[in-house]
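debug: dumping io for the single-chain case to check the tokenizer round-trip. Nothing else runs in this session.
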Amino acid sequence: MRFAIGIDYDGSNYRGWQTQQEGVPSVQLTLETALSRIANHPIQVHAAGRTDAGVHASGMVAHFDTTAIRGHKNWLLGTNTLLPFDIALRWLHPVSDDFHARFKAVARRYRYVIFNSAQRSSLLAGKVTWHYHPLNLERMKKAAQYLVGVHDFHSFRAVGCQARNPVRHVHFLKLYQSGSLIVLDIQADGFLHHMVRNIAGVLMAIGEGKAEPEWVQDILAAKDRTQGGVTASGSGLYFADALYPPEFNLPKEAIGPLWLPLPS
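debug: decoded output
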């Protein structure tokens, strides 16, 4: 039987989602270990996307196969009992064998949270990116619109990105502000390695007044990562959602992180 699952996690204590060499903590391995104990056989989990070290998820979707017969509460509550405090199974839903968390996703959504304040916050440490220079939200919004649509995002991907095609379709790129928090909300048909963090770095530079909003157009045209500015910290980045065809009928929750005072 195949199950789709929804997960949220604080990535601060992990070297990313994907299982790596022995002794390196990952979200995937931690989750598989807990699920395997409930199933009483080895479980492999496939996720909608991969997050880097220190990056979080408020709406990661994954799937796994099992021969074990367990009740819904046994899977959900039992797994959460075995998971550490910084990883939580939010929901579990039976799906057909043709569902695949990665390959059936038609879009993915991220949120990047900036704490724009002259002083840092200990309570938000690791959960946001602290930027102490004042940011002009309107300048950032103007710049963001140049990124919406179909573009070659070569200048916005990591040097080591292994994707063959750098063209992506950004469905929307919105910016919200609530007090000292600024949130970059972006959805696309797919993302390149470090794409959101590089976009955030460029938008913060523009918001600070280091460049004009039209700089984004120059970066896109250059197709050169060295022209793309500084990669922003991973601590403010959240994998917020993965979208699938309606026939899979997956549960939907409010777009997180849950503590944000913003619309979903």
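debug: round-trip ok. The chain has two domains: 2-104, 107-239.
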